[in-house]
Amino acid sequence: MSEPVFYFSLRSPYSWLAIHDLKTRYPKLLERLALKPFWEPDEELRGALGKHGEAFLYTAMSKEKHLYILTDVRRLARKRGLTIAWPHDKSPRWEVPHLAYFVAERAGKALEFIEAVKDMRWKLGRDICDPGAMEEVGCVLGLDPIELRDAHLDPQIRAEGLQALRACIRAGVFGVPFFTAGREKFWGIDRLHEFAGSVGQEAAPVEMPTAMTGSALLDHAGGCG
């Protein structure tokens, strides 16, 4: 079987929760996963996809769905003993953090980068689309801060990002978290248990908050863009 893949978005609160569940319940699986970013492309990258008849598989959510997600994520975070600081995305440029990810990946710090950025976004409520934020992450991780700050402007990294988006399209990724194991596909944090089972990975014991059942962490599809 080909290596298992976790498609994530640094924008998505459900990806944040999936990372938490992988760390606490499936740490060995997390070590095995190929981590692949998924994000809404800017006009230039979207145009490059369109030239080859490719379309990014994501549909903008309605106001009603957005409001539901605010409540749902708060509920799911509370069940995990997490608190969330909702960021305000003024003029998001998702290439800023997601193309910086490729710099960290080349340096062997893919997961460390994801951890730093998700904490910045979901624990501190910071704007991760600010290039200065990526510069800070570079300093924390011991990477070139300028390279991370300017990754979204680098033609070579943008070309790498374009290929990554094409890979998402080929894999049929329409939202995150999204997991694949060979031809099997799993969308949402409630499918993490099934995904893990498909690759022979059992959940590690985890201490649940009071009054929670063993299945309480797996009660919602938990998928979005």
From TrEMBL:
Query: EC annotation?
Result: 5.99.1.4
On whether Isomerase is a keyword of this UniProt record, the answer is yes
Per the database record, which ranges form the DSBA-like thioredoxin domain? 6-197
Q: Does the keyword Isomerase apply?
A: yes
Q: Name one Pfam family in it.
A: DSBA
Reactions catalysed, semicolon-separated, are:
2-hydroxychromene-2-carboxylate = (3E)-4-(2-hydroxyphenyl)-2-oxobut-3-enoate
Q: What keyword terms does UniProt attach to this protein?
A: Isomerase
Kindly give the PANTHER family that the UniProt entry links to this protein. GLUTATHIONE S-TRANSFERASE KAPPA, GLUTATHIONE S-TRANSFERASE KAPPA 1
Give the similarity note.
Belongs to the GST superfamily. NadH family.
Designated name of the protein: 2-hydroxychromene-2-carboxylate isomerase
